[in-house]
Amino acid sequence: MPVIKSNVHTHTDFCDGKDSMQSMAEYAANIGFTTLGFSFHSYTNFDKSYCIRDYFGYIKEFYRVKELYKDKLTLLNGVELDLYGERPSVCDYVIGSAHYLKENGRYLAIDCSEELFQVILRRVYKGDAMAMVKRYYEEVAELAKNVRPDIYGHFDLITRYNCGGKYFDEGDGEYLKYAARAIEALPEKAVAEVNLGRAFKGQGDIYPSERLICMMKERGVRFMLSSDAHKKEALGYKFDETLLRLKSLGVKSLAVYDGASLIDTEI
Question: pTM to 2 decimals?
Fold first, then answer.
């Protein structure tokens, strides 16, 4: 049973998740969670491959499952809002994420597949990975300015396929300069998730990197553990191990949804 018993970055089969809302809730209750937030991908009319497909059906199912599990855990209705997505009129919280690079009126998906990432890098950025990095962190800064979410999702998603520095050096001064600009754009006491979705899939480490976590900590950013679960088994994955890593980096507390309230809890 994880020490942190809350996760609010959760995808179901109403968007690109694999499991139903009810099976996610049942699993969360069984591992001792007290709060579970569902966060469908916001609707994007230019890319319907993984966003919400049936919003009204989703809301109907959410309230059914919420009533079904009311004695076991608190369920929250959230959204993972893309910079270019449609914001729902009612939700308990917003996770803000940049999944696309907008260039000349086109929306370029950077985390769809490594093959597509390579095509974008080669054809749009002429092989200049730092130009691509720069554009990504400009998008994150724009997200901070125009969306102002409750939580910032997978802050350095641009590194998804960069394991081992395959495309660029994450310790390079130029890379860190662009990342720092995005960090400086965050509002006071912003909450950034420490996202374990990639780690669960065996495709790399946490988002953001430890280096960026230290930079963000100096800026006063708060952190939240996040499964970014697309299947029930990802809920709470390596929460305890990651909590210890964060403590070793000097993080003293985590933001947690305790029911519908966002609180800071010492670790």
Answer: 0.96
